[in-house]
Amino acid sequence: MANPRMIQKFDEIAAHRTTFEADGTSLVFDRNQPFGTAHRHKPVKVTANGTVGLAGNDEKVFGSLDHIEPDGSVVVVDGGYVRFSGAGTVNLGVVGNTGNIVKAASTGASTGAVVYVGSGYVIAKI
């Protein structure tokens, strides 16, 4: 019988986390959710006023939301092998997609390169 602990995944390898101020609109602390949010692993962007918010369709992705602190600050995985909710294609970059997930980038500015495609998520090296 196969050992389920022997599955090799790339997420969390050399992950770099940085704390930022949340935009206060798309990202707010929710004490009833694990990690303070229902948006864990969703793609985020830097907004016009320098805060962090959820990335929308075809927007360049800055990182993946790790968690939201009770004071409203957000912790973003912005380097290493990063897990994103969504879909992608190995060796292509990712951009934001409708529904606050990622998709394979066809042209233009993208983030990282997908190294693994799972069921409903991708791992990208950024």
N→C terminal distance: 35 Å
Helix content: under 10%
By CATH, the architecture is named: Beta Barrel
Main sheet makeup: 5 strands, antiparallel
CATH class (first level) name: Mainly Beta
Overall structural class, as computed from helix and strand content, comes to mainly beta
Tally the helices: what do you get? 0
Mean pLDDT: 89
Low-confidence stretches: none
Beta strands, count = 10
Shape: globular
Q: What is the spatial order of strands in the main beta sheet?
A: 1-5-4-2-3
| DSSP strand content | 35-45%
Sequence of secondary-structure elements:
EEEEEEEEEE
**What is the CA-based Rg, rounded?**
14 Å
Number of domains: 1
* CATH fold name: Virus Head Decoration Protein, Chain: A
Describe it.
With 126 residues, the chain is an all-beta fold. Helices cover 0% and strands 39% of the residues. A 5-stranded antiparallel sheet has the order 1-5-4-2-3, with no helix packed on it. The protein has a single domain, classed as Beta Barrel (Virus Head Decoration Protein, Chain: A). The chain contains no helices and 10 strands. The mean pLDDT is 89.
Topology:
Elements (H helix, E strand, L loop, with lengths): L15 E6 L21 E4 L5 E3 L8 E6 L4 E7 L1 E5 L8 E4 L3 E4 L8 E5 L3 E5 L1
Antiparallel strand pairs: 1-5, 2-3, 2-4, 4-5, 6-10, 7-8, 9-10
